[in-house]
Amino acid sequence: MSASTHSPVLKHHFEDLGQQHACERLGIWMFLTTEILFFGGLFAAYTVYRMYYPAEFVFASSYLNRTFATVNTMLLITSSLTITLAIRSAKLGDRAAVIRNLLITAALASAFMVVKGFEYNNDFEERYVAGAPFRVEYDKAVTKLAPLSDADAAKFVKDNHANKHPEIQHWAAQLALHNREGVGHGALDPGKVQLFLCFYYIMTGIHGIHIIIGIGCILWVAWEAWRGTVPPENYSTVEVVSLYWHLVDAIWLFLMPLLYLAGAGAHH
Predict the structure, then answer these.
(1) What is the reported pTM?
(2) Quick check: helix, strand or coil at residue 152?
(3) Residue 264 pLDDT
């Protein structure tokens, strides 16, 4: 019998490690396929509504924080590199490097969630959330601009935009001014702007849940490596988790242009 049939990491229901690793890879790819189908449906729904309401989606996107999104993109790209290095270290049997690279990956993922938390907090403070907060702020802006002349309304929005502590949130003042000037054909439907925000929070929220699950999986593999149960012949344990992590990273690379860059060229 070969050495692969006597390995301590061989599960009793497999004949050898080659069969075990093949089943592990098949299982993760089947799981990843369901994830791709799930997010593919979300992306397709977003694209359809984006085509129906392009002006509202561009406006809504233009008020998302692209600085936070860029930082998070760099964090995830770097984490893909470190988890790939963890696979190489596992193949070479360098246990310390495996643990180090996995912990760095988990730290980068955690930093992503921290930045995302700051971004959500900023959005909530600006009442850039679909539902009552959005409607209250928008109605407040409409009421404020209603008695003003066109010139005074434009001046108020300009001064309000320059104020770090605005009387009315920038997006609400700009939307109210736009609809005042573009009554009828050129007006933006606040409901469609909120539709974009629904997609934004649902897709980034689900992606965030996947990040948290990924952090848990990475820490579990690091723990197993520390216990010495990830020898070179069982490097596929790291590889399977890395495949999940690369998918999570790839989903973000689709979310970034769909959500944040759609309104990058808009001027306020």
Answers:
(1) 0.89
(2) helix
(3) 73
